[in-house]
């Protein structure tokens, strides 16, 4: 049998061959890679799809359990190999290592715990935890027994958490008493208690003790993690899943208020995350890989949990933040664990670049071989700082473009194999058929192009639907361009066919790498009794990439603008989380609207970008006078 390593792209010929094969014979290509995994029953059809429905199925009728592929295989062949090196928030706390065997045992134990409280295949389990090993264990335990995990980032508020729990009617939530992040403690259990007041489907709340904070306890509902697994065996047979059974739901923001529960399935997701992990990071068997993301986001799912474990990698998982106890923390961890591949976000790079360079130079970074970036376009300055100071002018940087919806990396260079170009994600990976259309939806055939990015053929890890709302899935991703996947990003292509992502073309703003729909933020601002209406737009920000500017109309003029701004910030923190707070709140007497009553956001975006002149066509405005008024307000503030 072939091994996944046989599909490792080692040189440009390999890359071209794989790209050609994936384009000409996608089924043959992907079924070859899929054959390197452990299946309980081989699939019948490699791919069935019809994007007019839209429907996509990979490895149809194949049977497997992804955790057997992540854990059992390696626990058997290489039991002592390190799977996870966990580094605590506090550098004085000992780091922990889980070998593949140990991780499998812990996962099995917790799987048995979940079974003990009645969790079955197909049940939805919410996980709201800090970055501790138990988060990974909980995720894999769900997958082991066929329960669908829905991880909610531990920075979301109780209202946002409740909305996500209710959307997929989760029956169990797994949390911890609190979480350490820098010098702060997040009271996770308290936030859960608040959320669960409005979550009738939750039967149990499993609590891992991490911070030993005092917490409230609801005897019939709450269970300590340790009590749950006490005395349970560390063997648990994996539940055999269909390739197209749901593996997990992960929520992402959209252009409307309701979060979208993206549904990923077992087989295709497994094959694609493993293949892309191995190739994009050029992972070799003795390397130590570190992705600084949080498992609450897709990057954590695909490139901290599943991708690395599927190829038997050793990964660092980090509980803390880059600035604690000082801004050298990332580099100290790189030195300590001799990290080879380092994957982070542009917003972190920009913050790090602001600090004295001593924080970098104190540490020996000679183990590093590949640097990665994800989450938003990386600006040239940040790229150069990363290249010069961390890469010492010689390490390849992979700028990886992808999404919660795509499940895995779609566009990226391959280190030392394909060319890199600063600020360009560069080449679509084998099997990714990218194209650019102009604003009228016409395909641009020439190499040099600027317009809207589309993908015109299925790849194995595309999200199959939005949980409970296939119509919305169709509308958002498959309606604007017939039979093509529309990711919502603009792109530029140079004369050599290299892609640069230029940013969102919808009402999603990426702030510090977090996707924020402006609609839910507006909804929560509008809840303020003094607010008539609001509009939120993004504008470029030095560290965060983008920041938010909120324009609000009040019922009555008030003297104390500052206190209303604070109240609005509190409202947003409560309903979504502190990450969604606008940088600036501007009180206006009206918003520019079209005759049909739609807010002309384009104009507000220009204003927020400090562009007061090139407003484009304003002839369809119902209230053109408001444009000057807002302009004057902003000038006064500047
Ligand atoms: C943006 C994160 C430019 C993009 C994996 C995308 C990027 C959204 C890049 C998805 C990149 C992600 N260059 N933009 N390398 N990576 N994006 O779902 O707008 O949190 O649509 O997935 O982030 O964000 P999400």
SSE order and pairing:
Elements: H1 12-24, H2 26-34, E1 45-50, E2 55-60, E3 63-64, H3 66-77, E4 82-87, E5 96-99, H4 100-116, E6 124-128, H5 133-145, E7 148-151, H6 158-167, E8 172-176, E9 179-181, E10 184-186, H7 188-196, E11 204-208, E12 222-224, H8 225-229, E13 241-242, E14 246-252, E15 260-265, H9 266-280, E16 288-291, H10 298-310, E17 314-318, H11 329-336, E18 341-344, H12 346-353, H13 358-361, E19 370-374, H14 380-390, E20 397-400, E21 434-437, E22 449-455, E23 465-466, H15 470-478, E24 489-493, E25 499-504, E26 508-511, E27 514-517, H16 518-526, E28 531-541, E29 545-554, H17 561-575, E30 584-588, H18 601-608, H19 625-637
Parallel strand pairs: 4-17, 6-7, 6-8, 7-14, 8-11, 11-12, 16-17, 16-18, 18-19, 19-20, 29-30
Antiparallel strand pairs: 1-2, 3-13, 4-5, 9-10, 14-15, 15-23, 21-22, 22-24, 24-25, 26-27, 28-29
Helix pairs in contact: 1-2, 3-4, 3-10, 4-5, 6-7, 9-10, 12-14
């Amino acid at each position: 049998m072939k091994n996944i390593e046989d599909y490792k792209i080692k040189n440009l010929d390999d890359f071209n061959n794989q790209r050609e094969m994936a384009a000409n014979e996608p089924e043959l290509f992907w079924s070859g890679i899929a054959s390197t995994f452990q299946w309980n029953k081989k699939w019948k059809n490699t791919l069935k799809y019809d994007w007019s429905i839209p429907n996509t199925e990979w490895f149809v009728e194949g049977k497997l359990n992804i955790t057997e592929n992540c854990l059992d295989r390696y626990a058997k062949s290489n039991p002592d190999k390190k799977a996870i090196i966990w580094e605590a928030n506090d550098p004085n706390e000992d780091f922990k290592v889980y070998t593949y065997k140990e991780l499998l045992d812990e996962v099995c134990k917790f799987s048995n715990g979940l079974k003990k409280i009645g969790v079955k295949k197909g049940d939805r389990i919410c996980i709201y935890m800090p970055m501790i090993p138990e988060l990974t264990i909980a995720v894999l335990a769900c997958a082991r027994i066929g329960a669908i995990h829905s991880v909610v980032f531990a920075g979301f508020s109780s209202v946002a958490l409740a909305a996500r729990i209710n959307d997929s009617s989760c029956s169990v939530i797994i949390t911890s008493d609190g979480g350490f992040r820098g010098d702060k403690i997040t009271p996770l259990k308290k936030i859960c208690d608040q959320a669960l007041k409005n979550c009738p489907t939750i039967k149990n709340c499993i609590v891992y003790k991490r911070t030993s904070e005092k917490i409230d306890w609801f005897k019939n509902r709450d269970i300590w993690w340790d009590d749950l697994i006490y005395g349970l065996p560390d063997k648990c047979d994996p539940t055999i899943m269909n390739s197209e059974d749901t593996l997990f739901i992960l929520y992402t923001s959209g252009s409307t208020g309701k979060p979208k529960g993206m549904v990923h399935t077992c087989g295709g997701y497994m094959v694609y995350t493993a293949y892309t992990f191995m190739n994009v990071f050029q992972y070799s068997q003795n390397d130590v890989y570190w992705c600084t993301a949080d498992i609450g986001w897709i990057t954590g799912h695909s490139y901290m949990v599943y991708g690395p474990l599927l190829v038997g990698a050793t990964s660092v998982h980090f509980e803390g933040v880059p600035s604690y106890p000082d801004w050298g923390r990332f580099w100290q961890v790189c030195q300590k664990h001799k990290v080879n591949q380092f994957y982070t976000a542009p917003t972190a790079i920009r913050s790090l670049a602001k600090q004295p360079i001593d924080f970098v130079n104190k540490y020996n970074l000679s183990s590093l071989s590949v640097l990665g970036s994800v989450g938003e376009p990386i600006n040239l300055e940040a790229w150069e700082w990363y290249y010069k100071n961390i890469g010492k002018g010689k390490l390849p940087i992979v700028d990886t473009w992808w999404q919660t919806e795509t499940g895995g990396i779609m566009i990226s260079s391959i280190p030392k194999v394909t060319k890199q170009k600063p600020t360009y994600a560069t080449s679509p990976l084998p099997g990714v058929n990218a194209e650019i259309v102009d604003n009228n939806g016409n395909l641009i055939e020439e190499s040099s192009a600027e317009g809207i990015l589309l993908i015109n053929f299925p790849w194995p890890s595309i999200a199959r639907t939005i949980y409970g709302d296939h119509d919305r899935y169709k509308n958002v991703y498959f309606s604007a361009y017939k039979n093509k996947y529309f990711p919502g990003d603009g792109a530029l292509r140079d004369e050599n066919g290299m892609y640069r992502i230029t940013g969102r073309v919808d009402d999603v703003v990426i702030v510090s790498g977090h996707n924020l729909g402006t609609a839910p933020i507006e909804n929560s601002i509008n809840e303020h009794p003094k607010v008539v209406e609001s509009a939120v737009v993004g504008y470029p920000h030095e560290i965060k990439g983008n920041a938010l500017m909120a324009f609000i109309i009040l019922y009555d003029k008030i003297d104390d603008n500052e206190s209303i701004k604070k109240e609005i910030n509190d409202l947003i923190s409560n309903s979504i989380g502190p990450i969604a707070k606008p940088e600036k709140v501007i009180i206006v007497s009206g918003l520019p609207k079209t005759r049909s009553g739609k807010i002309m956001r384009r104009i507000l975006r220009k204003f927020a970008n400090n562009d007061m002149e090139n407003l484009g066509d304003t002839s369809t405005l119902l209230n053109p006078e408001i444009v000057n008024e807002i302009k004057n307000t902003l000038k006064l503030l500047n």
